[in-house]
Amino acid sequence: MNKLNPIRFATALTITAAIAYTICSFAFLAAPDLTYGFFSSFAHGMGLTASGVFGSFGMSFESYLLGLVCISLGAFALGGLFALTFNRTTIAVPRSERTDFSTIRPSEA
Question: Distance (Å, rounded) from C-alpha 30 to C-alpha 15?
Fold first, then answer.
């Protein structure tokens, strides 16, 4: 089995997380109440605004950049750790023991 390059995998995850964070930030700016409701559904309907989690939301460009940096650093660290763990736990199967899935035909009903 092919091994993952930890730097490439971590970079790909970082870019993906940064894009998702940016989309989420625009959603909060465009429709804060709708976005609050959407994320409240992830918290099993708990009122996130009432609990103070999203109580006083105000996004400045500086807070966006700080969040983007934190998300990116965390994603890079987790991506690298995942790739290293994957590479250490993956068992290489000799070519002679691999199944050739291209020869398997779906059963005819």
Answer: 23
What's the CA gap between 75 and 86, in Å, rounded?
A: 16
* Nearest C-alpha neighbor of 25 from the set 55, 56, 65: 65
Domain boundaries, the chain: 6-89
**What CA–CA distance (Å, rounded) separates 31 from 76?**
29
Residue with the two structure tokens 């460009």: 61
For the whole prediction, is pTM greater than 0.90?
no
Contacts of 34 (CB under 8 A, 6+ apart): 27
Residue 76 neighbours by CB distance under 10 Å: 19
Going residue by residue through the chain (109 aa), what tens digit of pLDDT does each one get?
Answer: 688 999 999 999 999 999 999 998 898 888 888 887 787 777 666 665 544 544 455 678 888 899 999 999 999 999 999 999 999 988 776 777 767 777 767 765 4
- Strands (DSSP E) contained in 16-85 are none
